[in-house]
Amino acid sequence: MERSAIKKISIRLVPFVALMFFVNYLDRTAISFAEPNGMGDDLALTAAQFGFASGIFFLGYIVLEVPSNMALHRFGARRWLARIMVTWGVVSLLFTWVDSTGQLYVLRFLLGVAEAGFFPGAILFLSQWVPGRHRTKILGLFYLAQPLTTVLGAPLAGWLIGHHGLFGLEGWRVMFLFVSIPAIVLGIVAWFYLSDRPAEAKWLTPAEQEWLTTKLEEESEGKTGAKANHGKDALKAAFTNARVWVLGLVYFGFIYGLYALAFFLPTIISGFQEQYDTTFSVMDKAWITAIPYLPAAVALFFWTRHATKHGTRTWHIAGPAIVGGLSIPLALYMGSPAATVAVITITACAIFAALPVFWSVPSRFLTGAAAAAGIALINTMGNIAGFGASYFTGWIRDWTGSYYASLYVVGFFMLLSAVLIISLAARDGRTTDQVAGDGDGGGDREPVEAAR
Predict the structure, then answer these.
(1) Which of 34, 36, 311, 322 is most open to solvent, judged by the fewest CB atoms within 10 Å of its CB?
(2) Is the pLDDT of residue 297 over 70?
(3) One cellular component GO annotation, for this chain's record (predicted)?
(4) What's the pTM?
């Protein structure tokens, strides 16, 4: 029955939520494809202005992150995630007609406000459907959408940009038009397709519903927030938990690296033309941008499978952080575009391998409204990193004339993540699962050794 229930969730629920995430991430990062393909020239953007436009999204997101996740816990994921998708789809559609830097700033801020709570809400939603021993696997399948967004989204964006003149619009405006509509459609579908909890899922048998509900209730006992009946109690339980703040700082480092790549990789690739005296078409640049993310998706899949099978250990998170922190500054010292992209691929693999494993940790010691608040708080700190990576990468580029110093900062924050997660585990001399207070440990597996 366990195998059957988890299989149904993996097939029926996870792909749809991952598709929502795919569209979410594509809309969020579409600006990175637009800037080097006409928008930067049309709006006369400097690197710092582009970085600020990319990063101000996260300020809007941060403002409503925790309240949005608390609302999701109260009103249910089906209604709230559907509402978020339709709202951000409408705002994203307005980018089609932006014609000044000021308008760009306003719309990016509003896009962040509209999207607030989607990602932590999706993490919370999926975590509430499966027992702890299956959570890393389920979140890994969900997280595949993020690297695949670039693998598929970069060529799609390049293809749409190539339709310059359609409806009398510049190519980058055509791209914004057609990547926004799916969000609105999916939001409407989500209202009817999703169920808030296993007990409401008609596609599960009564026995499967009962097993999942009972198992999840058993796991919630003894976790932080289990006795928090009111919003204030849940917020206090999450905000006074030291593990939440340390995990937020760990996540900060990973997200700083993720968005430095997401927003500036297309621009760096465009710079190859002058640096190496070569020429790339729009589709050439789109395909080159996609290269690091396909191996990253493969690395993510097998890394999460290993963590699921053997139990999440400290090095499942710290190891990729160290690899990413050391590799990213080396990228711009390579002697050719191929070598540079190869090193960036290593960094992308490291970041994406660690993220779904990381997100399996908070729900191991938080439950209920406290989990909603704690996961949102951790993601808020990541979004602060998203703003910092976007703005300061561009600002340092304008100040120094190159991306070398910017990528050293990225490497520093990723190495800091490794130090923090190792320190969190070493404090009790345990594995990451056990540090997080997971009474289940590795599920049916034997307890794993203390991390060294």
Answers:
(1) 322
(2) yes
(3) plasma membrane
(4) 0.73
